[in-house]
Amino acid sequence: MMSDTTLVAAFLGLVEGLTEFIPVSSTGHLLLFGHFLGFDSPGRTFEVVIQLGAVLAILTVYFTRLSGVLCAAPHDPAARRFLWSILIAFLPAAVVGVMAHGFIKAVLFETPVLVAVMLIIGGVIMLFVDRHAPEPQHEDAMNLPLPIALSIGLFQCLAMVPGTSRSGATIVGALLMGVSKRAAAEFSFFLSIPTMAGAFAYDLWKNRDVLDLSALGDIAVGFALAFVTAVFVVKWVLDFISRNGYAFFGWWRIIVGVVAIALIWAGL
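^ Undecaprenyl-diphosphatase, sequence as received from the core. Prediction below:
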């Protein structure tokens, strides 16, 4: 029979898989649910490690496509340009993440009200951009100009504030740069691979002294559920966005943020 902690870990893994690749802030949801459920992990390592399950989901779904790009890169300029676009988009967040890691984890991750407020602000911005973004000029996520990739990477830095959403920041940035709604989501998927893998490795190293080996079972449960759930979400979300845009996610963010603030003010 699973312990209460393991049940909470399983629930949080499910939340991670459901929210990582839609622009609603998986980290924000994990932190808020963890706060209200009384779940705490040393150095917030649980929240970072289970995100790797979502990364593996992307690699699983896009394995054939990505492996084809890697095999073609030595002789195909288009494949190399795509890899360069991901690297260039990744670098800003890598630099900011390393420089501000301590402040982000010690202050921003421990402020539930900030998370809720950022969910609301991000939701309002998403509703506006979904309706008023410029006409798309770029339909292929694997063929974006390098300056646009860099701009998207700079937007990703905003997601250092929990509740902003990594996918939300990159998607909004891409839409403002004239990328189509579907291509914006897909580029965000690809960019998540180095970003989340790098965050996982760096966070694990920084918190090596406070890791609780007794919690490995809970982490494994959360990791597995995040992976399985994210596979289904990735396969579903592109078609949903192509048909409906991002308004649904904007309203989702606003509702979750308002409910969270109400619960915090109620002393929960």
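The chain has a mean pLDDT of 87.
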